[in-house]
Predict the structure.
Amino acid sequence: MTIDRRAFTGAVATLALAGWLPSNALAQKKLVLGFAQVGAESEWRTANTESIKSAAKEAGIELKFSDAQQKQENQIKAIRSYIAQKVDVIAFSPVVESGWETVLREAKAAKIPVILTDRAVSTKDDSLYVTFMGSDFVEEGRKAGRWLVEKMKDQKGEVNIVELQGTVGSAPAIDRKKGFEEIVKADPKFKIIRSKTGDFTRVKGKEVMEAFLKADGKKINVLFAHNDDMAIGAIQAIEEAGLKPAKDITIISIDGVKGAFEAMIAGKLNVTVECSPLLGPQLMQAVKDIKADKPLPKRIVTEEGIFPMEVASKEFPSRKY
Ligand code: AHR
């Protein structure tokens, strides 16, 4: 037998009002959040999942969690199952930007509010979600570009850059590329000579960097990796090719995970731009606010910094992910 959660809640309310149940029976009913996660592709994602799970526990919210293994069809299936289960709120971090309209309309028709976390969707109809909380990925790309422009300001000749992109079609890959290019294109000495996806993973970051090195070897001056995991994989490839990471090839990445700080302390990574995965507490607050009919801003932007290798040892003890 399946129980319709809303009908059940209504029945509890009626009984409580009639004095048949204690008046706190309603207050004891937990909010239910269905969360469709991208996957477990990076150290960042693991920290993000942990933040969501622990914040839900802390907030007394029942969490239904699914891991889409970086496949959009799996995320859509999970969202549909949350709709069928009539959860109170659905949240997800969309693996790619496009292709969400149909399932979001289904959630809207079922009157289940949707929160986007970490990554955005591309839709003209912003009534399909309540709020989008997460980083400004274009700005992260700009920060990476500005750091490079400053570092290479006295360099006279060409600066050959290779780029390891994140998952094709994902918001962070599209936006970080855009922000970085916007800054470096102002000076023609910067040339992006190769750009390919490493799908945000260490394994693919290493694989693609090996191919870059095979094709261009010592011609490469800079690596811009859209996340730390790909940079860490690439560092291995650079060492195996007999080159010194962060010396022969300047390496810039994004996230600020502990692994990146360890690489900086070891002198193998030049800089990481922060992208915080600790979105759990903010998400649980938003779930509560929605259920209490409090208005939420359409966009909640995470505050973030940038950490060059010179500050890595000092900052490392206070890193939370
Ligand atoms: O969407 C955030 C990105 O996804 C992080 O930069 C990356 O590490 C993750 O997999």
Notes: The chain is about 40% helix and 20% strand. Residues 47 and 201 are 15 Å apart (CA to CA). The pocket of alpha-L-arabinofuranose is lined by residues 41-42, 44-45, 118-119, 172, 200, 227, 229, 254-255, 275 (CB under 6 Å).
